[in-house]
Amino acid sequence: MPEEINLEIFNADTITEDLANETTEAAPKTYAPLDAAAESQAELSAEMKAIGEAYARALKGGAPAEIQPRLDYAPYRSSVLRHPTKSLHHADPETIELYSPAFGHMDVHALESDLTIAHNGEPLGERIVVSGRVLDGDGRPVAGQLVEIWQANSAGRYIHKRDQHPAPIDPNFTGVGRCITGPDGTYRFTTIKPGAYPWKNHLNAWRPAHIHFSLFGSEFTQRIITQMYFPGDQLFPLDPIYQSIVDQDARDRLVATYNHEQTKPEWAMAYNWDIVLTGSKRTWTENEALGAEGDDHE
Amino acid sequence: MIMNRSAMNKPTQLAPTPAQTVGPFFGYALPYAKDRELLAPGSPGSVRLQGTVYDGAGHPIPDAILEIWQADADGNVPHHTGSLVRDGYTFTGFGRTAVGNTGTFTFTTVNPGPTEAGAAPFIAVAVFARGLMNRLFTRVYLPEDEAALARDRLLSSLDPDRRRSLIARRDPDGGLSWDIRLQGEGETVFLDFSDAEGPST
Question: Which residues from A are below 8 Å from B27, CB to CB?
Fold first, then answer.
């Protein structure tokens, strides 16, 4: 298998005519060094700006606000061949889809919510506490459910064999955490503030610092994976993944809030981020509404 | 958070947190031991669900991750914890697998039973991948009960050629084969469960 990131850029260039300004020749491209083939940030920014302006015009014309990212967002080059071209088919969830897999303290150890204690020494970087609540679209807490996170270390390096960024690996930081939400839907992780890191979407592409979050609701239809960002990041306007959410209010929902009240003196900075899943479709029993489901032992 | 009540006495929906792609680097975080084995391979009643995930150029995708969620063999919805630390005996109904370098995946599971009398049994599937900004939901139906398949609400609302993308093939060894095509010819039917008046995806 050739290096797959190169392969994708090759595919994207040949399939989507409107992406490249250059005329696409019939001759097959070779796997040129990325930097030679890569587009500039200015080109990508111009594309993102045009999409943003078209969205603003649509809003003015009465179109509804878009609350999710676009699956078809060409500035994120890897999406070009990976988004469905047919509309999603509207369906009513049935039976199994109206329930969620159950996770509990059998699945997750309490220590897994502290990413700074997985090794013998202290990881390098800014120690932070990230906490918030998981709610469904009706404002009900999602209790006793699984939250999984993963992230780069403070230097912007992932413990992943495909991450080739020449930033140091921290032997005291893996960057994976899990927890089970409390009865009021709260989650809490102690970790290290991740660094920004470069990627190969275009030349000089950098991802804003983020933590990946994976969440389950009370129904399988509420399953979501997303990313939490940090306030004030200068990379937001430049990042096609963040910008794939074309609505500014929706984008803002991915940005945590710094909380000085919760910041622990001489220890850790605190960030808050609440997560709202889509509304539930099932008629709930009283026990479920109180959060009694989802854990065998509590 | 502020919650208003509409005149219909239905709570106004809070705006959901948007999704973002799973990215390329989930491989050290989301997979776990026996994630794809809802029961032990080779144990009585076990079947293999296998397939390949393809992109719009027909190339296998090496960095997708799939989840399945299903009823047990009797059609009951499982309520047991223990999917992440499997005890080898409890059927939790949930499985997860990162695809291999050639885009292939394999789950060991059971044929789900019908959750209601006469219902067509299916497995719910969520698809995540680098390059995919939000998870895609779909279903894989067992091929046998043609009358139930013909009655199924979702399947009967689809064109016959698209309907095929949701029905597994039965392998000679009793397993199920089913491919996922994110785009293009034979594109898998992906589902939107949002309310009709609500926003899509």
Answer: 160-162
Whole-model pTM?
Answer: 0.88
Touching B: A residues 5-34, CB under 8 Å: 7-8, 11, 15
In tens, the pLDDT along A248-275 reads: 999 999 999 999 999 999 999 999 999 9
- CB-count exposure of residue B170 (10 Å: 0-12, 13-18, 19+): middle
Is the Cβ pair B28, A150 closer than 8 Å? yes
A212 classed as catalytic: yes
Show Cβ contacts of residue A66 under 8 Å, excluding neighbours closer than 6 positions: A55, A245, A246, A247, A250, B199
Neighbours of B71 (CB within 10 A): 25
**What sign results for the dihedral spanned by CA atoms A235, A236, A238, A239?**
positive
Asked if B199 and A67 come within 8 Å (Cβ–Cβ), the reply is yes
Confidence at A164, pLDDT banded by 50, 70, 90: confident
Mean pLDDT for A146-165 is 91
C-alpha–C-alpha distance, residues A250 and A261, integer Å: 26
